[in-house]
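Hi R.,

As promised on Friday, here is the backbone we talked about, encoded as structure tokens. Could you run it through your design pipeline when you get a chance and send me back a sequence?
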């Protein structure tokens, strides 16, 4: 084994002016070489790998981003999330944004119903505060979830515009509230190379039922997170590894439906 090969290649980047680019690219070379050596990669196997990456690129267009799906299913997206999120135990943990966030949803009133699909009713409510417990008035809360058929509005032409998407402001006490329906587990897109990779490696494509939240308040770090249903069969095997124990919630039966009381805690920008 000729270790000086790796050194020759990293040295080829020695003239790179940008220190961060140099750090990233030389680390990438070291890890790629170590990976190929660890598994004794053959020419045929690497050709197969290149074909897979080529197919992944060809699947991408203005809407579909197969490389992000690859990053998600290899757990890289959630590692980046972990590297870049705060590690303050008092603040709410983050989770993946996913590809189905949409800007420009119209504002809804406190306690509005965001569901235009039939389903099991849920009343979500809680308070947004900072880590000292001070409620944050006028924080922007955006939520989105799938319909019972496992599709987001935007994936499904049968769903009315804005279905199961909400945009709210917290009130003077920092409270938010809205009515919706219980989310459903759903498969990530499987009609491309990432779906083939999951199939070939004996993995399922399911995300456990969840509702996404994005919360913004001036002076605080933006929070992108999701709440995962404790009773979902996939809660311990999310295809994209987004579930964190602190984000798993119980749907408490209430008046023929469910209630979820869940507070969120944001971290001030200067502390992050
Ligand atoms: C989502 O939760 O919307 C999602 C996240 C990653 C990949 C696919 C979907
Ligand atoms: Fe989702």
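Update: got your reply. Pasting your designed sequence below so it's all in one thread:
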């Amino acid at each position: 084994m000729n270790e000086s090969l790796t050194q020759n290649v990293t040295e080829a980047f020695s003239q790179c002016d940008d220190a961060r680019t140099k750090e990233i690219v030389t680390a990438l070379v070291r890890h790629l070489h170590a990976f190929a050596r660890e598994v004794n990669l053959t020419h045929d196997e690497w050709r197969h790998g290149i074909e897979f990456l080529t197919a992944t690129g060809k699947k991408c267009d203005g809407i579909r981003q197969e490389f992000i799906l690859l990053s998600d299913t290899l757990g890289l997206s959630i590692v980046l999330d972990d590297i870049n999120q705060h590690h303050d135990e008092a603040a709410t943990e983050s989770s993946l944004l996913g590809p189905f966030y949409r800007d420009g949803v119209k504002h809804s009133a406190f306690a509005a119903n965001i569901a235009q699909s039939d389903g099991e009713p849920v009343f979500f409510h809680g308070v947004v505060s900072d880590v000292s417990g001070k409620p944050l008035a006028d924080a922007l809360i955006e939520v989105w979830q799938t319909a019972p058929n496992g599709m987001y509005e935007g994936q499904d032409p049968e769903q009315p515009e804005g279905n199961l998407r909400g945009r709210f402001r917290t009130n003077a006490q920092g409270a938010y509230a809205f009515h919706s329906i219980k989310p459903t587990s759903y498969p990530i897109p499987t009609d491309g190379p990432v779906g083939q990779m999951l199939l070939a490696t004996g993995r399922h494509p399911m995300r456990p039922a969840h509702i996404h939240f994005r919360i913004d308040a001036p002076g605080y770090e933006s929070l992108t997170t999701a709440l995962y249903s404790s009773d979902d069969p996939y809660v311990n095997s999310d295809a994209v590894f987004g579930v964190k124990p602190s984000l798993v919630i119980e749907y408490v039966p209430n008046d023929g439906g469910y209630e979820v009381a869940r507070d969120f805690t944001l971290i001030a920008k200067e502390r992050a």
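One thing I noticed while checking it: Residues 2-60 form one domain.

Thanks again,
M.
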